[in-house]
From TrEMBL:
<dbReference type="InterPro" id="IPR017871">
    <property type="entry name" value="ABC_transporter-like_CS"/>
</dbReference>
<keyword id="KW-0813">Transport</keyword>
<dbReference type="InterPro" id="IPR027417">
    <property type="entry name" value="P-loop_NTPase"/>
</dbReference>
<dbReference type="GO" id="GO:0016887">
    <property type="term" value="F:ATP hydrolysis activity"/>
</dbReference>
<keyword id="KW-0067">ATP-binding</keyword>
<dbReference type="Pfam" id="PF00005">
    <property type="entry name" value="ABC_tran"/>
</dbReference>
<dbReference type="GO" id="GO:0005524">
    <property type="term" value="F:ATP binding"/>
</dbReference>
<feature type="domain" description="ABC transporter">
    <location>
        <begin position="5"/>
        <end position="236"/>
    </location>
</feature>
<keyword id="KW-0547">Nucleotide-binding</keyword>
<dbReference type="InterPro" id="IPR003439">
    <property type="entry name" value="ABC_transporter-like_ATP-bd"/>
</dbReference>
<protein>
    <submittedName>
        <fullName>ABC transporter ATP-binding protein</fullName>
    </submittedName>
</protein>
<dbReference type="InterPro" id="IPR050166">
    <property type="entry name" value="ABC_transporter_ATP-bind"/>
</dbReference>
<dbReference type="InterPro" id="IPR003593">
    <property type="entry name" value="AAA+_ATPase"/>
</dbReference>
Length: 267
């Protein structure tokens, strides 16, 4: 079967009039259909850059990005992108917000509208279709943003720290809901998160990135007992704490290596 995502030798350099920043270098990454992969690494290691490249918002300086076997050069409805901020329009109802993507793509019709309403229902927002974003809690708003992303039936979901602005309890509930929804709809997903527990609880595979430039440092397959549990229960599964420590130490090593490379301050 075709890889859902395939990055080959991907390098990206941000160029401004003052400087050039090598954000990510020589990234090779394949994601299988239906797989859930998390990207973790220090801030500035290029996680958002990688998602933007897969979303086709930017083109690689070198290398190639394919989604479902086709080279990505522009944003595509096959890829859904969800961010930490929900970007709901305050003057539109939840249903209208959820339909925004479809309307922009010229794909709003009775069938896609019905599907969106079905998703709202599935996400526990069926009764709040006619509400406005300011009437919703943070968790409900993120669920509405997820429905908007799923409404266009993307094959691939890119999630850039979608739970990080939520309180802990809401975040855990949403992890379970998102995990279940993506499984039901057989979606492939790439999640960026700062939260090691979240990465382990939600993923099939975890990619640890190095910084300056962003490179793949380690790939870790999550063992079956953890993968098969829902995220909330995965935290109690055998092997969870060992895996947490392994990734924690990996991230500590990255900051340790960086500290060694820093120049001593002049006295
Ligand atoms: P992360 O999401 O892992 O925190 P980013 O992908 O946002 O990292 O950034 C990777 C690197 O690219 C950082 O060094 C950052 O400063 C740089 N960078 C990101 N966006 C821009 C931009 N628009 N212009 C210049 N440099 C950028
Ligand atoms: Mg980022």
């Amino acid at each position: 079967m075709e890889d859902a995502v395939r990055m080959q030798g991907v390098t990206y350099v941000y160029v401004t009039d003052r400087e050039a920043t090598l954000a990510v270098e020589n990234i090779d990454l394949s994601v299988r259909p239906g797989e859930f992969v998390s990207l973790v690494g220090p801030s500035g290691c290029g996680k958002t850059t990688l998602l933007s490249l897969i979303a086709g918002l930017m083109r690689p300086t070198r290398g190639e990005v394919q989604v479902g076997g086709k080279t990505i050069t522009d944003p595509s409805p096959r890829v859904g992108y969800m961010l930490q901020q929900d970007y709901l329009f305050p003057w539109k109802t939840i249903l209208d917000n959820a339909l925004t993507g479809l309307r922009l793509m010229g794909r709003l019709n009775p069938e896609t509208r019905q599907y969106t309403k079905h998703l709202l229902h599935e996400m526990g927002l069926g009764h709040s279709e006619d509400w406005y974003p300011q009437q919703l809690s943070g968790g409900m708003r993120q669920r509405a943003a997820l429905v908007r992303t799923l409404a266009a039936k993307p094959e691939l979901l890119l999630l850039d720290e979608p739970f990080s602005a939520l309180d802990y309890q809401t975040k855990l509930q949403l992890e379970d809901l998102v995990s279940e929804t993506l499984k039901t709809h057989c979606k492939t997903a790439i999640l960026v998160t700062h939260d090691i527990s979240e990465a382990i609880a939600m993923s099939d595979r975890i990619i640890v990135l190095d910084r300056n430039p962003g490179r793949i440092r380690k790939e870790i397959a999550v063992p079956d007992p953890i993968r098969q549990a829902i995220p909330f229960q995965a935290r109690e599964a055998p092997g969870f704490h060992e895996l947490f420590n392994q990734i924690w130490n990996e991230l500590l090593e990255i900051s340790g290596e960086e500290a060694q490379h820093e120049q001593p301050a002049e006295t």
